[in-house]
Every structure is written in structure tokens, then in C-alpha cells.
Amino acid sequence: MGTDRIYAGKDRGVAPFEFTESVVRVFPDMIERSVPGYRQLLELTPLIVRRAVGKGSRIYDLGCSLGAATLAARRAVQSPDVEIIGIDSSRQMVQRCRQIVAEDNSIVPVHILEGDACNLRIERASLVMMYFTLQFIEPARRDALIARIASGLLPGGVLLLAEKLSFAPAQQSWLDAHHHDFKRAQGYSDLEIARKRQALENVLIAEDRETHHQRLRAAGFEQVIDWFQCLNFACFAAVMPPEQASPRP
Q1: What is the DSSP track for 31-81?
Q2: CATH code 1.10.287.990 for 21-159
Q3: Is 0.85 surpassed by the pTM of this model?
């Protein structure tokens, strides 16, 4: 994998961001240098897997990109008969992800699909991961997707939803300034930061914390826990109600 220099050139216009072959080649470098806390989020993911995932259930990774979360979950699975299903809409991502998964030394079956996560049928899921994916889906489709996820989760099942958040103007300005400082510390130039921001405009559409909470509650999640945050990037753990015990005769 290469170093992200996609927005370093001065001689090209800035096209809307897409997960093209050039992005795939540098994606691990791009996301780690752009999303503060990303590596730690992956390191913490197995903690949720070990508690949430039971025998005979499924893990879904929606917007799996190159499979970083998929593999973090795979290596933490402790119950037999668990399978993992990842899906991504980028053909280039899917092709490379399948290669990476095939090279990983694990017996837990993983199936990487190419397609639209909004159309995926989710069944017998104990855990669904959606790391920085919902923000790239049209807002009008988000409610239905979250409802579809909730309907496919087992009692007590968990959705891990990581997103870039939006805030009130004063907070947003403060967080944006420090996010840009983070990027500079990772070696990005002011030009690269400005060009990447321009490319993501109207492509990555962030929502505020309350909007996420309301959507998750409306879909039927019993608990919505602000589980992880670093600057303006956060991960919610949304938990379905547990299975109700049968009343005694």
C-alpha cells in the first residue's frame, strides 16, 4: 500500500471524492492519517466482538472497504459456527479486500460482497459494524437502512456505528481547526487538506449526535451508547433489547 498523495498536485481540478483505484492503493494510509482515533477504534473492536457474538450468528461489516474491521472482528471470534459478511459498493475495494482476507490466517469464514448495503438482507446478526459508511449514503436512505439492520439483529445484538459528526457552529469551528492540525501532524499540507475538503463537499454529509440517537431509537434499539470519540469522529454502540424470558406457567 502506498502513501496518500492524491491531493498534492496543483495542476488538476478537484473532482467529487470517489473510492477509485487510486484511493484503494493508498486507503489504509489515507484513513489512518485523516481520521483521528481510527487505529484505536480497530483495536477496541474485539472487545465488543467477544461479548456480543454468539454461536451460530453472523457479523456484518457494511462498507467494509479493505476489510480492516472485518479482520479485527474475525480474529476475536471465539464461538464456533460464526460467519462474517462484508459488503462494499466499490468494485476495486471488493477485489482487493478479497485478496487481503484470503491471505489472513483464520478459519472463520468471510464472504465479501459487491453491492449496495441498503439492499443487503441481514439475518441472524449478533453484530453489525458500519465504520464511516452511513455518512456517504444519501440522507433520505439512512432511516430505512438502520431499520433494516435492527430487524436483522438477534436479541441483544449490537450495531457499531462510527461517523464523522456535525456540531453547532462554534464547536464545529474549534473541532475543524484541531482536525486540520491533526492532519498537518500526519504530514498533509494545507493544499492537500483544502483539496480533500473540497472533494468531500456534498459527498460526505455528516449529521449531529442527536440525529443519530433519534434514528437509532426509532429503529428499535434499546440503548444508544456514546462509546468512543476522538475530535469530531465518534462511534455509537446501539444495542437491541434482550430476549424476553418466557413467563412461568
Answers
A1: HHHHSTTHHHHHHHHHHHHHHH--TT-EEEEET-TTSHHHHHHHTT--STT
A2: no
A3: yes
